[in-house]
Write a structure and sequence with these properties.
The structure is a single chain. The protein has 3 helices and 10 strands. It has 218 residues and is α/β, with parallel strands linked by helices. The protein is globular. The N and C termini lie far apart (70 Å).
């Protein structure tokens, strides 16, 4: 009886510690992916449902900008195909963002007619002298496919560094299908552009819209 009890306790502890280790690996990988400090209050893993839930996520902003974070969400829910993790194409059944908050900031302190920098790293890419980062060739290329992506109850906060004014926008609820980093599916960069366009047309400040349009050529 004692041996059976010991096995049950050890099995229970193994499940708990495996979830803790797996959670830390996921958070570390997410930080590397977005190239920003990432904090998650709690990660719930349900192996039987093949589901991971991130609770209270924060992705840090760059120090020079006003807001502490560039992104926050109350909850991100993922259902994945576990077997696909060991293949070249990781399949995710759904990715749901609940109560997300995006923080966009523009640096136009030197010249109010020019956006010199932003906190999403897009302005620097428009410079003719910009040199994109190069990564070593991988022996095995890892791709992903998200069958369904949802954004629910999202908000966007916009600020320029030369003004104390803050703009708050309610983003449209959106659903995307078959988002991936492969050309034969809807590329995630295209999804990003759709979200930015939705933000742009909801900005109430016409001067800021003109400034953004001039800079990013919307």
């Amino acid at each position: 009886m004692k041996k059976i009890l010991l096995i049950i306790v050890l099995g229970f502890l193994l499940v708990i510690f495996s979830k803790v280790i797996f959670s830390q690996i996921i958070i570390f990988s997410l930080s590397k992916l977005v190239e920003r400090e990432t904090f998650v209050s709690k990660v719930d893993i349900n192996y039987s449902k093949r589901e991971i839930v991130f609770n209270l996520i924060e992705i840090r902003n760059m120090d020079k900008f006003y807001y502490k974070n560039i992104f926050e969400a109350d909850k991100i829910k993922i259902q994945f195909n576990f077997k696909s993790i060991f293949t070249n194409l990781v399949e995710i059944d759904y990715l749901i963002f609940s109560n997300s908050r995006f923080f966009l900031e523009f640096d136009n302190q030197i010249n109010e007619k020019i956006i010199a920098d932003d906190n999403i790293g897009e302005v620097k890419k428009l410079d003719n002298n910009y040199i994109a980062l190069t990564y070593p060739i991988k022996k095995r290329d890892k791709n992903f496919l998200i069958l369904e992506t949802e954004l629910k109850n999202s908000k966007v906060f916009i600020k320029t560094l030369n003004s104390p004014k803050k703009i708050e926008i309610n983003l449209s609820d959106m659903t995307f299908y078959k988002v991936a980093n492969k050309a034969e599916f809807q590329h995630y960069k295209e999804v990003f552009k759709i979200i930015l366009n939705d933000i742009f047309f909801r900005i109430p400040d016409q001067n800021l819209k003109d400034l953004i349009y001039k800079t990013y050529k919307f």
